[in-house]
Every structure is written in C-alpha cells, then in structure tokens.
Amino acid sequence: MSRLSQFFSHFFRKRRYDDISVSIQEHIDERIDELMDEGMSRGEAEHNARREFGNVTLMQERSREEWQWQRLESLLVDLKHVCRRLGRSPGFAITVVLTLAIGIGANTAVFSVVNSVLIRPLPYPEPQQLVALHLNAPGAPGLADFRDELRLSASMYLTFAAHNRAFQSVGVWQSSTATITGTAQPEQVNTALITDGVLQTLNVPATVGQWLTAADQDPRGARRVMLSYGYWQRRFGGDPSVVGRTISVDSQTREIAGVMPRGFKVVNYDFDLLVPLAFDPVHESLAGFAYHGIARLRPGVTISQADADVARLIMVWMGSWTNGPGIDPYFYLTWKITPALKPLKDQVVGSVGNVLWVVMATIGVVMLIACTNVANLLLVRADARQQELAVRAALGAGRWRIARELLVESVTLGLLGAAVGVGVAYVGLRLLTVIGPENLPRLSEISLDGRSFAFTVILSVLSGLLFGSIPVLRYAPSQQSVPLLGGAVRTSSVSHERQRGRNLLVVAQVAMALVLLISAVLMIRTFNAMRTVDPGFSGPESLQVMRISIPGTLVRDPQIVTRMQNDIQDKLAAIPGVASAGFAASVPTSGAEPNWNEITIEGKNYAGEEPPLRLFNYVSPGYFHTAGTRMVAGRDFAWTDIYGLRPVGILSESLARELWGSAQAAIGKRFREWPAMPWHEVVGVVQDVRENGVDQISPATVYWPSMMHDIYGPGSFDARRTVYFAMRSNRAGTQALINEMQQAVWSVNSNLAVDSIRTMQDIYGESMARTSFTLVMLAIAGTMAFALGILGIYGVISYAVSQRTREIGIRMALGAKKSELAWMFVRSALVLTGVGTAVGLGAAAGLMRLMQTLLFGISPLDPVTFIAVPVVLVAAAALASYLPARRTAAIDPVEALRAQ
Amino acid sequence: MAKNSEHRDLFPGALEIMILQSLRLKPMHGYALVKHIKQVSDDLLQVEEGSLYPALQRMLKEGLLEAETGTSAKGRPTRIYRLTDAGIRHLEREVVSFERMFAGFTRVLAAAKA
Question: What sequence ranges are listed for the domain Transcription regulator PadR N-terminal (chain B) (predicted)?
Fold first, then answer.
C-alpha cells in the first residue's frame, strides 16, 4: 500500500469519523444534561439519552456511507467473500480459470500477432508518409498471370526522382545475393541493392558511421557498402571501428560506410549488406522493370494527389528515354500503365491480413464458447446457492447488492483466467515465432505489448460481465420472484425455465462449434487438394537444391562460366548415391527474381497487337530429368545445343497448346524474343510447373538454354551466373551429402559460395506455409470448440438427469422402460444439437464465402464437408448425452420417490 | 425503528431545507439544531438523530455546509456547522420550488374538498 493511500485510509478518513463521533458524543451529553435538569438521576438520564438516540454505531456507519470509499470497502469485502467461496470449491474454480485461461490466452496470442502485423505502425519515423510505388499495367496481357504489379525500371526511377512534386524522397531497391571472399570460406550473403533515396525515405539513422549517399550511385565513384546489425555482429563482433575497413564483395573491394541499427529492414527484406545501385543514365533504356519503388510523401500530400503526379511522370518518362534506335517509346501506351500507390504497410503485410482476421474471428468464437461453458457452470452454482440468495433477498439485500456480488465473482474469475492466460499467450507466441511460416511478415516484431495487455484486461472483464450476467438475470430480478423455499419444493415449471436458459447456451455452442469445425475441415481439404496437385516435379523430399553464383568479377567469359557449371553438374552427379544432377536459373517458389518478356511466333501476323508476356527460365541438359518434370513431347537440351549456341527452346505444355493446339504440333515450330534474335526452334515440351506455389496456376513458360545469344544479337552471348543446382538422391538433406556437395563445388573453384541448401520439400513446404498456418490455427480452434461444445451437452444432460430423478422414479413406478427413459434424454440432446446444427449451417454457408480466397480446389459450400461435419457432431452429441442418460437405469424408483 | 420511520419521510428534501434555514440564522452544532427546529416548529417537528447526522455528512460532502471543531454552549468540544455560499443558493432555489409545490398541493386538496 502506498503512503498516499495510507494517509487517506488512516488519517483523513479517521478524522472524519472522529469528528462525527465527537458531534454525537456531545449530542448525547447535552441530552443527558437536559434530562438530569428535568430531575433524572445520572444513570437514568444516560440510559434514556442513549435509547432515544438509537444505535450509535449504525448511525456512524450510515454517516460514513455518505463518503465514497465506503463503496470501495464493501467491494473489497465482496472480493474477500468471493475468494473465500472459490477456495471452498477449488474444483469449480480451477475448471473455470483454466477454461478461461485457454480462451483468453489464445485470444491474446492471436491479438498480439494481429496487433504486431496489422495494427502497429511500421518501425520508421512518420510511417504514414511512406508509400509503395505500385504500378498496374492492365494492357500487358500475361503479366497478371504471375505478378499483379509492374515494378519500376531504372529510367523510371531517374525520371521520378528528378521531376516529382509529391515526394520528399524516392528510391528503388532490389534483393540480390553476393559472394564475400577473404574469409575462411567464401560466404554467400543477402544484399539489398539500393539507390540514393531509399535510406532517406525510411529515415532510420545509422548506428555506426553514415548512410550511403548520392555519390555512391556513380558507377565510377566510391565503392562502398553498409552492414546490417546482424552481419556486423556475426562477421566483425560488433567492432565500432569497422567504418573505413574494406571487404571483398563479388571479388570487388568495397569500403564499409556504416552499420544500420538492429531490426532495420528494407521494407520487409532482411539483408546482410546494403549495396548502392549505380545506374548509368547514358546506358539506361525504358525497359528493365526490376525494382521496387518506395517514397515518402511531402506533408499534406495525399496518395491520390501522388497518383496524379506519377501519372504525369509516366508520360515524361516515355518522352525522355528509348529502348534503342527505331523502337517507338510510346509502345508502352498499350500497356496502360497506371499508378496505384499504396501505403507501404500494405506491401509489407500483403495477403496475410485476410488470414489473420479470419483466425482472430475464429479464436473470438472459441472465447464465446468458453464463456457459455463458464456461464453454465455459474448457473449450476447459483442454483445451489438459490436458497441462500433468497434468504438474503428476504432480509433486505437489494437486487443490485446480489447482482454486484455475482458480478464481482465472475469478473474475479475472468481476471484470474487472464492472469494465467497471459502465460498461455506468452508460451503460444514463443511457439508461433518458432513454427510460424517464415513468410509471415513482421514475424520478428511479434510481441506482447501494452496494447496486448490492455486487450487482455478488457477481454477478461467483458467476458466476466458476459458470463456473469446470465446468473444475474436469473437470480437477481425483483425479490418476489425468488421463491424462498424453492430449494425444498421445486416445481417442474421452475426447473423447466432454468433448463431453458441452459438449452439456449448449448444451441449457441453447437452452432459456433459447427462453424469452426466446417472451416477447419475445409482448410484440411484445401491442404489435401494442394498435396495432390502435380506440381510439375516429383519426389521433393529426395531432391536436393543449392544455389551457386559465379559473378562477372570472378569469371568474365560466359563460355567459362558454362564450363564450370557443367563441371560442377558432372561432379555432383558422380557423388555416390546421386542419381542425376542439373541446374536452372530458378526453381519453383525459390523467390528468384522472375524474368519475363513477350515472344513472337514465326509467320504470325500480330496486326499491331502486343503478344502476351511469358515467364522465362534457363535450364541445363538433365535438369528436367533430375527435377522429375515430365517430357510431354520432343527432347531435352543437349550440351552441344548449349555450347553451339543452337537456336532451340523448350515450352511448357499449356503454352504449346495455347500457341499451336497440342504439344506434338509445337515441335519444330519457331519463335523469338526480340527482332534481332535468331528464330528458335521448339525441340521439346514439358509438363506445366507450379512455379509460384501449388495453389497458383502454372505460368506459361519458355525454357531457354543456360547459355544463349543476348539482347545485342548474334555473336554476343551470355550465361546465367546465378543458378540453382538440383540433385536427385535418397541421401538428400543429410549433412554428409551437403559436405560432399561443397567439396565438389570447391574442387572446381574454391572461391565459389554455396548457399540456400535445401531440399525441394522445404521449398514446397514454405509455399504451403500460409495454408498450413491457417490450417493449424483453425484446427486448434475447431478442436477446442468441439470439445467445449460436447462438454456443454454432457453437462446439460447430466444436470437434467440429476434434477429429474423424482420424475424418473414416478415414470418407472408407472412402468416406463429404462431404455425409453434414457432415450428421452438423448432425444432432448439431439433436438438441441439439431437446432444448433441448423443455425450453424446457415452461419457457415454465409461465412465460408468470406474464406473463399484461402481455399484451393474446393468449393466453399463443399457438400462432403457440410454433410460429414454435422453427422459427426450429432453422433458425438448423442454419445455425450447417452453417458449421463444411462444413469437413469441405476435409479431406484422407491428411493427416488422417497427422496425430497 | 418504528419511531424513526414515522418521521423520516416527511417529504423529500424537507429535512435539508430545515437544516439550511436554521443555519442561516447562525452556525450551530447538531444538538442545537435539533432543539432549534423543535422550538421553532412549536414541537410539531422532531428531527431524528438517525436522519440528522447522515444528512449533515451528505451536505458537507456536497459543499452546502462547512464544519469546524468548536465548543458547545456547555463548553464541551463538538462540531459547529455553518452555511456556505453554495448552501445559501441551494436553499433559495429549494424554497422557490417548495413554495410552488405547496401551492399546487394546496389547490389539489381544495379541489378534492369541493
């Protein structure tokens, strides 16, 4: 107790009391004097004065009651009574507190996730000014098939940065990787390539040293980098004198300019190094839409004003750059590029918002079910106290007095539940950050903060009032309606009425549990549908993947790059237990930057129409065989195709069908990417591959040889320098195999870094992470709801049996069969479940439409689910009611009639 | 108890007005108030101690009165109650509304007789 409150309770209050006592004492003394003046003896006078005055203590108390703290005091007294009463029935208290702790804990945990991911602002100063430079291109057919946004090109950035009126700062960035040498082993790190303006926009100061500046953008200028806090700790042990030292990035010496603070990310990207992007305006063209744009709005500028400014800048951009001589720069008018800037947070959060709100609502429903269970328990308890409450009401305890006591009890239970629930939430969040999907944005920011605690307290008080109000409505109405002797002579109408409240709770529980079970089952079916999809590769668990990059600074000649890759592939294939090996520029859902462009078909007249965009991948001979991608027609590439720069290509099955009607018909046909490119002949067609995750349709894909002519035409060629090697082996994922893989790579060149070593199963699992995350959350919620709902039915029937012992006795005495009596109870449970199921089915049908975006390969009104779940629920309810109903058999009619 | 209830609900607010009106003459302690009201009303109104002290406490809290420790006419320590400005304003408002109420009350009684 603080000094201040001590002062109040002991000094201040006491003085008031003493004053009133003094007044009263004087009052009595004067009366005594008066009576003695009238001739009474002292003793008589004192006696009479006191009798006239009445109960001094009572009056003192009533006088004191005029002061506020009296209420608080009586509240504390109530609280003491509540605690004592709960202590007397620990079973009840523990059941209720644990039920609430699970409900509140689950809600607090999920709320913390929602709060951290969706509500809490981004960790940058004045985050409301930050926007993502999102562009739509509805006129570029095919683009939307695999990416609904158009990124910025370098020339766009240069135009926007120079001529905008809406932004304080603007910048573009891209994720990439780099090889760091000069350490014991070559190390592959994640880099964020940034232009000037990115750090100014995010506006988080460096922990050590300074930001990169505009000077770093000069392709011939300062070669500098910045470190992330994590990389600084890992590589330099957090040494503050690191500024000015040099490291070798892709065999290029760079000076360290500074270190960004702990937790700093470029939008949502966790990097090791910040590397300046050095655009050379002389060589830039319109194309090359490879960069994410971000900007900070000027104060007072709205997003729609900024949209208008960017729309103007897009025209300036088309007028300022070309794609080379003879190419119409206004070609991009056909793409109908429109700005659709959005708050940066929307880009960070992405599609996860939808999932989280569904999970939050689900967990909220579990809380409601938990509350109905607790309300049921409280009703039973209040029943038991009915006589006591009636006596107190008869003795003058007001309606509010009894209501208050019941509410103090329920809110106390709520708060106790919250106290344990916070522990549950803490453990839950620790688990979540460990098992949660890696692509859940802001995962590392998830924590219990003040807002989460406030949520917990409000939730527990509200739920306390909610489940507490049900017994209050029943037991603290006007005093006459509480029968004083109700405990002894229970009329059937009273018990029916009481039963009705409980029945309503059960109907509500069944309905809510049904909705949750249906969502959970639909997610399970979605998960299964995703697993049975042919993703375009086979046996992901025995497919080992790793990424190797050969930068131009290490090996300039593309021919030698290809030789090295060929050597690595051969050495990997020669490892014992490895069946085959191959490589490709990207493997499904690897997160590699997509590469796409239009292709033109030989002999086809486009009549001014633009052909759609296609996804490009670059593969080695043997890659398809290794990945288990089926050859539908024709043949795979051969090394002679690669080294001979032969104009060949392979198409995905859906693309071949689209262009020429069938896979067979496509063989021998010719196509190309740009006018100076020789026509390439289709030599093979492979099955479709789900490049963007199993729940996304397969993009129409062109597979090019890993080394081929480049944009500068015949004679000039290039190889893919960052590729993913794939090996088929039943030793996939073992450390021994990984060691042998690294040895194989280093025997070719010891400066090569190996990274992203995973099995395809890991990659595959990550692409299903969002679904499995939703699935796990809904399955937990559904199971809790199911268990609580069944417990509710069990409790109600159990109580009904115990209440109607006498009736059962009479019926037995009149000749009713035991099985008929048991059936009577089971039937009433089935009626309740039936009503609840009907209500729940209606609600589920409406709600599942909202969940449609989370489903895959299954209708939101899937008939199997909508039939199977109610059947299971009704069966479980029948069983839950049969167990207590069976007890009727044990009732002895004579005993039952004699009792009461 | 029965004795109390006979007098308690004279009508709402009556006790308060009598206390305020009495204290308007001069500050008094509790017993003096009881005697004063009894005398002035020609023994018609008897203030019950059981109502007086809680009423005084409530009026103190509402700021209509203030109290200080003083001595009674007999020289013993007690609490002297005094009217505050707020108390005077409250009294004036209440008297106006009481008079209006009485006028109405009287007319209703007269009509019932007629």
Answer: 19-92
